[in-house]
Write a structure and sequence with these properties.
By secondary structure, the protein is of the alpha+beta class. It has two domains: about 230 residues, P-loop containing nucleotide triphosphate hydrolases (Rossmann fold, 3-Layer(aba) Sandwich), CATH 3.40.50; about 120 residues, Nucleic acid-binding proteins (OB fold (Dihydrolipoamide Acetyltransferase, E2P)), CATH 2.40.50. About 25% of the residues lie in helices and about 35% in strands. The strands form four sheets. The protein has a six-stranded mixed beta sheet with strand order 6-7-8-3-9-10, with helices on both faces. Strands 13-12-11-14-20-21 form a six-stranded antiparallel beta sheet. Strands 15-19-16-17-18 form a five-stranded antiparallel beta sheet, with no helix packed on it. The chain starts with a strand and ends with a strand.
């Protein structure tokens, strides 16, 4: 295991294209950290620089205080699992697992012990004499993980390892990865565009966009206290409702006003606003559905009622304002039906400005 420090890490490609713009990050010994963001945000480039597969144009990479920026990949003692399984098709599972150990000259008895240990941990003992073409996608992914783990690396790097799996298997493998990390306690850096994977697996999440860090925090911090509009919209499914409006006053109480909608605000939240135009944010699960004529409720029209198993997503419109409510599965609402909703003041988020980098006020 190792503590990883990225000090001003930068990668600039030809014609001034900046993939990673001065990344500062400290990853604790044994920590599971996810780099998450849309395609092209720089997360895979950052991972490849940690691995030594991409040369930085600035900054340093340190493992336990040792500068490894200029070391070759083989000298960094890292193991990497890619989106593709990258198994040797002509070798059995056993030979795939022990290949790296053979190259390093590990004695046969120790190789056998490590293969037995890893295969038990990953539940691939019955497949040791099979070849990759005889395995399912999930089994191949376990072998790929095993081949990396068997070396007992200082740092374990995973680049979208579950993206080739179907939805059901992806959920299963997420649980397997979480269990695996608890067992091996190896420092893990995980790259994904799937924010649900990041939320469920990570000790901390680094949200990136356009090569820059937007927020670093625990999954709960990133979900419940997004720093800006980008994080609020990217993290969460469905995304946080964001409504454009302005600060006003309702009977002496500060309020947020949008077309067809006025929402009272806590004074401490309203007092932090400095921009003329604001964004009010609320998570879909915090939109409380009530009767259309309920006191303190806002009447809205149902545009779409989307059944998602045990819950429903109600797409609502009031004036030109639209929002989504996540509710328990139950009675369906026909398009055009009238309902009411309330927005609890303690669950509201206010952003200063309306652009992508609009900053959260709390």
């Amino acid at each position: 295991m190792a503590k990883v420090m990225l000090d001003g890490l930068r990668k600039e490609f030809d014609q001034g294209v900046v993939a990673v713009a001065g990344l500062d990050l400290e990853i604790g010994d044994g920590e599971f950290v996810s780099l998450v963001g849309p395609s092209g945000c720089g997360k895979s480039t950052a991972l490849r620089m940690i691995a030594g597969l991409e040369e930085p144009t600035g900054g340093r990479i340190l493992f336990d205080g040792e500068d490894v920026t200029d070391l070759e990949p083989r000298d960094r003692d890292v193991a990497m699992v890619f989106q593709s399984y990258a198994l040797y098709p002509h070798m059995t599972v056993r030979r795939n697992l022990e290949y790296g150990l053979r190259k390093r000259g590990v004695p046969a008895e120790e190789r056998a012990e490590r293969v037995a240990h890893i295969s038990r941990m990953l539940h691939i003992e019955p497949f040791l004499e099979r070849k990759p073409r005889q395995l399912s996608g999930g089994q191949r992914q376990r072998v790929a993980l095993g081949r990396a783990l068997i070396r007992d690396p200082r740092v374990f790097l995973l680049d979208e390892p579950l993206s080739n799996l179907d939805a059901k298997l992806r959920v299963h493998m997420r649980a397997e990865l979480a269990t695996l990390h608890r067992q091996v306690e190896t420092t893990m850096v995980y790259v994904t565009h799937d924010q649900l994977e990041a939320l469920t697996l990570s000790d901390r999440i680094i949200v990136m966009n356009h090569g820059e860090v937007q927020q670093i925090g625990t999954p709960e911090e990133v979900y419940t206290r997004p720093r800006n509009r980008f994080v609020a919209e990217f993290i969460g499914t469905p995304a946080m409702n964001l409504m454009e409006g302005r600060l006003t006053s309702e009977a002496g109480t500060p309020a947020f006003a949008a077309d067809g909608l006025t929402v009272p605000l806590p004074p401490e939240l309203a007092s932090a606003a400095s921009a003329e135009r604001l964004l009010l944010g609320v998570r879909p699960e915090d939109v409380a559905i009530v009767a259309p004529d309920a006191p303190d409720g806002v009447a809205a029209e149902v545009v779409l009622d989307e059944l998602a198993g045990a819950e429903r997503f109600l797409y609502l419109t009031v004036g030109t304002t639209q929002l989504v409510a996540r509710v328990a599965g139950g009675t369906a609402h026909a398009p055009g039906a009238r309902v009411g909703f309330r927005l609890p003041p303690e669950r509201l988020h206010l952003f200063d400005g309306t652009g992508e980098d609009a900053a959260a006020l709390r």
